[in-house]
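Troubleshooting log. The previous structure file for this entry was overwritten by mistake, so regenerating from the original sequence record. Sequence copied from the archived sheet and checked twice against the printout by T.R.
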Amino acid sequence: MANKNLTKAKSAKNDEFYTQLNDIVKEVQAYLDFDRDVFRGKTVLCPCDDPYESNFFKYFALRFNSLGLKKLIATCYVGSPIANKQLSLFDDEPVEDKTTKNPHKIEITEITDTRDNGSYDLLNIQSLLKNKKNVLTRLKGDGDFRSEEVTKLRDEADIIVTNPPFSLFREFLAWIVEAKKQFLIISNVNAPTSKEIFPLVKENKIWLGNNCTRWFLTPNGTLFETARTYWLTNLDHGRRHQPLSLMPSSNVLRYSKHKEIKGKKEFDKYDNYDAIDVPFTDAIPSDYKGVMGVPISFLEKYCPEQFEIIGNEYDLNIDKGRGYINGKRMYSRVFIKHKGGS
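Regenerated output below.
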C-alpha cells in the first residue's frame, strides 16, 4: 500500500513529506552511541529544510552544544508550503507574503540558551538571532539544492542531514557523493537497489541506517503512512557490524518457521544463474559456500564482515533483472555469499 502512495507522489512531484522529530532522535542516537563525537567540530547542512519549521533544524539547533557542532546551516526553497506560517523572519515582509516567495538560509554558530538540554519545546528562531553570531539571510536564487548558492554551502559542510525531495532523490544523492560528503538522508525502500545507487551499496561506500521510517507529516499537519522508507548513510554505526545468527542448511530446512522452506530437501536453484534462492533473511544457511539470492530486506541486516555482496539481477545482467526458478520469475534479489566462501 504505502509505496503506492509514494509512487503517486513521485508522479505528481509531491515532495512534501516531513520527518517526525522522534524518528530523527531515534536514528541519530544510534550514531552517537557508536561514536559520541561523530558531530563534534563539524558543520551540518540541512539543505531541504525551512529553518523555522524543520524538525531536522530543530534537533540540531537544540543539541548544538551537546553535539559539539561548529556550525549549523539550513536552507529553504522557493514556494515551500510551510515556510513561516507562524513567524515572519524579516521585518520588511508583509504578513501575507512572509518568506514563502523569498527562500532563505540561517547559519548558527553559537547557542547560549541554557535550554540545550535535550528538551524539545518550540524553538524560537528570533531568540537565536539576537546573538549576532547567528545570521539569517535571503538567498538570491530559489533555494534549490542544485543552485550555485546551496552547492557552495554543501562544499562548506562536513555532514548533510535531511529528507530530500522524493522525486529528485537519485540526483540529490549524486550531488552529495560528487562532493565526497558524509550524510544521513531518507530514501524510499527501492532506492538502495536502483542502478545508480546499488553499486555504492555493493562497494560498501553507503549503507542502510538503523531504523525504518513509516509515518510522515504533510504540510497540513496530518500523518501520512508509507510501507517503509530507509535511512541511507555513510556514517558508521554499530548495528551494521553485528553478524547474523544463522543455522546450517539442514537445520534451516528442518526447523524454519517459513512454510515455503520447511520440509524441503534443499534450497531452490535458479535456472539462469548459479545460486540458490533464500527468500527470507533469517533462513540464510551458515554453511553454504556459494552464491545465494536473498530479499532486498537483507540490506537491513547486512554485516560487511560476514557477507560479500556479489550483485543484483540488473547488476549481473540476469535476464533483464529477473532470476527464474522452474521457469517462474522471482522477486527482486540481492546476490551474496559468505566472506571466505568459494
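The domain at 2-241 is CATH 3.40.50 (Rossmann fold). Archived copy saved in two places this time.
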